[in-house]
């Protein structure tokens, strides 16, 4: 059975890069979101068992998504993918419930390592 995932980034190119970096043997059903409000809608529709989340976006940024998920006690496996690699950003997203932080540009090995570490693949 395919895992429902949502790739959230305001850049279409960045979303495509994440999708291309997904392990080829991992069966997924992919939903794309341009900002956090779309990501929350996808989650509520059951399309985000795993969420790949950018931080800097219009409408609702990645931090706000994490805060909303935490506030509503919603359960999804969030992997933040961002160019903002400052230790403060990484600590903040982990405190808000993100399981992992991957720096852009993303590589297949980075995603595979996180998914294996948590037993998803």
Structure description:
By secondary structure, the chain is of the alpha/beta class. The chain has a single domain (3-117), classed as Response regulator (Rossmann fold, 3-Layer(aba) Sandwich). Helices cover 40% and strands 21% of the residues. The chain contains five helices and five strands. The protein has helices at residues 12-21, 36-44, 62-71, 87-95, 108-117, and strands at residues 3-8, 28-33, 50-53, 77-82, 100-103. Helix 2 (36-44) packs parallel to helix 3.
- Percent of residues in beta strands: 15-25%
CA(first)-CA(last) distance:
12 Å
Q: Unreliable segments (pLDDT under 50, ≥5 consecutive)?
A: none
Q: Give the averaged pLDDT, no decimals.
A: 95
Summed up, the helix count is: 5
Q: What kind of assembly state do the chains in view correspond to?
A: single chain
- Strand order within the widest beta sheet: 2-1-3-4-5
Radius of gyration from the CA trace?
Answer: 13 Å
| Overall number of strands | 5
What structural category characterises the helix and strand content? alpha/beta
**Dominant shape:** globular
Profile the largest sheet: 5 strands, parallel
């Amino acid at each position: 059975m395919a895992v429902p995932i949502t790739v959230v980034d305001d850049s279409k190119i960045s979303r495509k890069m994440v999708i291309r970096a997904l392990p080829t043997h991992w069966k997924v059903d992919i939903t794309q979101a341009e900002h956090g409000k779309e990501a929350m809608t996808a989650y509520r529709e059951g399309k985000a068992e795993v969420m790949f989340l950018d931080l800097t976006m219009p409408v609702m940024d990645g931090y706000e998504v994490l805060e909303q998920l935490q506030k509503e006690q919603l359960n999804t496996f969030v992997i933040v993918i961002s160019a903002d690699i400052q230790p403060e950003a990484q600590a903040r997203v982990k405190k808000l419930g993100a399981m992992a932080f991957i720096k852009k540009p993303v590589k297949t090995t980075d995603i595979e390592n996180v998914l294996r570490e948590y037993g998803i693949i």
